[in-house]
Structures are given as structure tokens and as C-alpha cells.
């Protein structure tokens, strides 16, 4: 595994290479990385039109609204239903 993890600058270089119409092998040669690393990075981040992405920004658009916990639901049920 040459070089370890990709840096943000590497990801920017991948994005600019894709924008310039370079293929994955050429981008990988310019970064001195294996072609599979570039291919996986592009696939992991949603394809050629979605790079670069900052860490931690993946969940913002897919997050669901929080749901009440079981205890909060039980309390709400007690308020609505009369005790018998």
C-alpha cells in the first residue's frame, strides 16, 4: 500500500483530473498511486461528478428526524389514556 491514506489534496487532484477528462490510470500515475486506489475513491464518493467531499459531510442530506424514545412514548400514552 504505497503512501497510506489519501489526503484532501490527493482527493482534489483526483477531482481536477476527472474534470480535465483524464482516465483513472493517468490520475493514478500523476499521484504515484495504484489505479485501484483512484477507482475506489471515485466509487466511494458517488462517482466522478461528486468529488471532492470533506470528511463527515456524508450524512447531512440523508439524516432522518429523531424519533421519540420508548420512555417518551410511554409517557405520552399515559397522558392520553385514562387509567382504569
Q: Strands, helices and their partners?
A:
Blueprint: H1 8-19, H2 24-31, H3 35-44, H4 70-80
Helix pairs in contact: 1-2, 2-3
Gyration radius (Cα, Å) is: 23 Å
Q: What is the terminal separation in angstroms?
A: 68 Å
Query: What's the assembly state of these chains?
Result: single chain
Anisotropy-based shape? rod-shaped
Number of helices: 4
H/E element order: HHHH
Quote the beta fraction.
under 5%
Major sheet size, sense and barrel closure: none
Share of helical residues? 40-55%
The structure class reads mainly alpha
| Top CATH class of one domain | Mainly Alpha
Reported CATH architecture of one domain: Orthogonal Bundle
Mean pLDDT: 76
Number of strands: 0
Low-pLDDT windows of residues = none
The CATH topology of one domain comes to Arc Repressor Mutant, subunit A
Any descriptors?
0% strand, single chain, Arc Repressor Mutant, subunit A, 84 residues, mainly alpha
Quick summary of this structure?
This protein is mainly α and 84 residues long. It has helices at residues 8-19, 24-31, 35-44, 70-80. The protein has a domain at 1-54: Arc Repressor Mutant, subunit A (Orthogonal Bundle).
Describe the structure.
This protein is mostly helical and 84 residues long. It has helices at 8-19, 24-31, 35-44, 70-80. It has a domain at 1-54: Arc Repressor Mutant, subunit A (Orthogonal Bundle), CATH 1.10.10. Helices cover 49% and strands 0% of the residues. α1 runs antiparallel to α2. It is rod-shaped and about 75 Å long.
Amino acid at each position: 500500500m504505497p503512501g497510506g491514506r489519501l489526503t484532501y489534496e490527493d482527493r482534489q487532484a483526483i477531482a481536477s483530473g476527472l474534470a480535465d477528462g483524464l482516465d483513472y490510470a493517468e490520475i493514478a500515475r500523476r499521484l504515484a498511486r495504484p489505479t485501484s486506489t483512484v477507482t475506489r475513491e471515485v466509487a466511494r464518493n458517488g462517482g466522478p461528478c461528486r468529488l471532492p467531499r470533506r470528511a463527515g459531510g456524508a450524512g447531512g442530506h440523508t439524516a432522518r428526524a429523531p424519533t421519540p424514545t420508548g420512555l417518551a412514548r410511554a409517557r405520552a400514552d399515559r397522558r392520553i389514556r385514562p387509567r382504569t
